[in-house]
Specification:
By secondary structure, the chain is mainly alpha-helical. The protein has a single domain, classed as MFS general substrate transporter like domains (Growth Hormone, Chain: A), CATH 1.20.1250.20. The protein is about 80% helix and about 0% strand. It is globular, with a radius of gyration of 20 Å.
Length: about 425
């Protein structure tokens, strides 16, 4: 029986180094989501200046996601065969400059191009950083560590909404892009000091397989396939809510640009942050009773979050709406650590950047690369509330895929010594 990573004597990382890596990449991940989400808080002002329809506004988010997911495949393949820290650093610099460049756009086409370029930069980071962080920690701690790392999703997103709303209202949407984009250049320089964990620093022997064959091999692992499909269904819903909830608050409850961004941002940072940390903590502790806890925690979170999200959209009172959406986000973010821990557990170290790249492609191709535009089209025809309700239905699929993955996890993790 193969040794687990925890038992493998070649697996050894200085705990102080591991903490420094986590702090740095968590900081970068926070800025990653600030720069990604700030657009959505600024959409009402941008739509007014450029006279954009809801479908055009939604396509700005889709432009980012389409490029982000397509760039992931070649970047993931090359990063597993090169120096990952250089890819990370280059990505930070590119997306930071592209975010700042969004502020100088003089029309829809230029803004569309800038947002697409942000996708290339963030793809360099998103395909590599989760496995890079996880490999610095033993397997029994990875769900919580990845949950902490993934907490940047709700916290960074919230900061993007809050900063976008506040800065946009105070100094205009163009200055908001400058102020959130340029600080990334400092983190770009800092990231050049990263070092590979000892286990993966030495080059490993790889079969001479083509990129296509290498990626297809990943989808022959059932747990990886199911967790990826679950992530796609979840991302369809959460991506749509991320883009359109500030507009929903503005239209449904008459909130100002700053108030709508702040309300959804604070809700997301608190509920999402708590949910992410709780999900990772529960999943790691539950490993004592079931090795399949990653799938259980994620699936049950989706089951709980679906009716709460629907209740928020249909609530007759603003306070009930906010309370229900708060609870929905808490449960929907339980999966952030566990779902990434599944990917790390069922893939080999020398293919993990590729695994996250393939995951990124699928979850965004079937998720938030299309949902903002589809919601915008549906909103133009039937109204924003029915469009968002329909998007929430994908959470039922997310739960179903998690429960299907339960049957395969032990065998898949055992094949590479992570059972």
């Amino acid at each position: 029986m193969p040794a687990t990573e925890a038992e493998d004597p070649s697996w050894s990382v200085d705990p102080a180094l591991a903490r420094r890596v986590l702090v740095l990449l968590l900081s970068v991940n926070l800025l990653n989501y600030v720069d990604r989400q700030v657009l959505y808080a600024l959409l009402p002002a941008i739509q007014k200046d450029f006279a954009l329809s809801d479908a055009q506004a939604g396509s700005l988010a889709s432009a980012f996601m389409v490029v982000y997911m397509l760039a992931a495949l070649p970047i993931g393949y090359l990063a597993d065969r090169g120096r990952r820290r250089l890819w990370i650093s280059a990505g930070i610099g590119l997306w930071s400059l592209a975010t700042a460049a969004s502020g100088v756009a003089r029309g829809f086409a230029q803004l569309f191009t800038a947002r697409a370029t942000v996708g290339i930069g963030e793809s360099c980071y998103g395909t590599i950083s989760p496995s890079f962080v996880a490999e610095h920690f033993p397997p029994q701690k990875r769900a919580f560590v990845l949950a902490l790392f993934s907490m940047a999703i709700p916290v960074g997103s919230a900061l993007g909404y809050v900063a976008g709303g506040a800065l946009g209202q105070a100094w205009g949407w163009r200055n908001a892009f400058y102020l959130v984009g340029l600080p990334g250049l400092v983190l770009m320089v800092w990231s050049l000091r990263l070092r590979e964990p000892a286990k993966t620093a030495a080059p490993s022997v790889r079969e001479p397989r083509s990129p296509v064959a290498s990626y297809l091999d990943l989808f022959r692992v059932p747990s990886f396939t199911y967790v990826t499909l679950a992530g796609a269904a979840m991302t369809f819903t959460l991506g749509g809510l991320a883009v359109w909830m500030p507009s929903f608050f503005s239209r449904r409850w008459g909130m100002s640009l700053g108030e709508a961004g702040t309300t959804f941002g604070m809700m997301t940072v608190i509920a999402g942050g708590m949910g992410s940390l709780c999900g990772g903590w529960i999943a790691d502790r539950a490993l004592r009773w079931t090795s399949r806890s990653y799938f259980w925690v994620s699936g049950l979170g989706y089951v709980a979050g679906l009716p709460l999200a629907a209740a928020a959209l249909l609530a007759p009172d603003q306070r009930l709406c906010v309370a229900a959406m708060f609870l929905a986000e808490f449960f929907l973010f339980l999966n952030m650590g566990p779902i990434n821990a599944v990917i790390v557990s069922v893939t080999k170290p020398q293919t993990r950047s590729m695994a996250f790249a393939a995951n990124i492609l699928v979850i965004h191709a079937l998720g938030d690369a299309v949902s903002p535009t589809l919601i915008g089209l549906a909103s133009d025809r039937w109204g924003l509330t029915p469009a968002l309700l329909a998007a929430c239905g994908a959470l039922a699929l997310a739960a179903g895929f998690c429960f299907l993955g339960l049957r395969h996890y032990d065998a898949d993790a055992g094949r590479i010594g992570n059972a």
